Amino acid sequence: MPSSIFNAEFSSYLIKHYTGNSNTYSAAIFCKKGNDFVGDMYFYRAGSQLPPSVREINGKISLFFYLESLPVILNILQTEGPLLYLYVNTRTNTGWLQTNNEPVGEEES
Fold it and tell me: What are the sequence ranges of the domains in the chain?
């Protein structure tokens, strides 16, 4: 049976925070490895229906969160590393952000 879990390693990101009601989401983080966009994280207002997390036809991973998760995600992006990954399970349409293995007792900088 083919794998249903896919990941995308990324090393840099762009953040967009939107104003007004023109978008269904309030913020987005676009993840890059080198010059390639490998995934997106979209942040929706409370009460919105979240789309399922997916792996696009081009292999890019798109994850969807509520806006209240944005500070936690930003903290992970700013303090963890050097490697971060986006994961998606295409059977369950769920996804997650994951760090590389961290040594026990490592102090954050």
Answer: 5-99
Q: What is the pLDDT of residue 46?
A: 87
Largest CA distance in the chain: 45
Residues of the chain with pLDDT under 50: none
Q: What is residue 100's predicted lDDT score, i.e. its pLDDT?
A: 83
DSSP character string of 29-86: EEEEETTEEEEEEEEEPTTPPPPPPEE-TTS-EEEEEEGGGHHHHHHHHHHS-S-EEE
Identify any residues that bridge with 61 across adjacent strands, giving them in sequence order: 39, 55
List C-alpha distances in Å: 36 to 41, 58, 85, 109.
15, 12, 14, 28
29: closest CA among 6, 57, 101, 18? 18
- Give pTM, 2 decimals: 0.86
